[in-house]
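Usage

Read records sequentially. Each one opens with the input sequence:
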Amino acid sequence: MENFFTLIMITLAVVGFGAVTLIPFVVPDHDDEEEV
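and closes with the structure output:
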């Protein structure tokens, strides 16, 4: 069970990191670029 739990934690970490990294590119709702 420990290996399964570790696999879940790693998967969630990778998916979370990927989501935070890709969302800004997929949904450019930031107005910071327009202000510059």
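Summary fields computed downstream for this record:
- The chain is about 80% helix and 0% strand.
- The chain has a mean pLDDT of 82.
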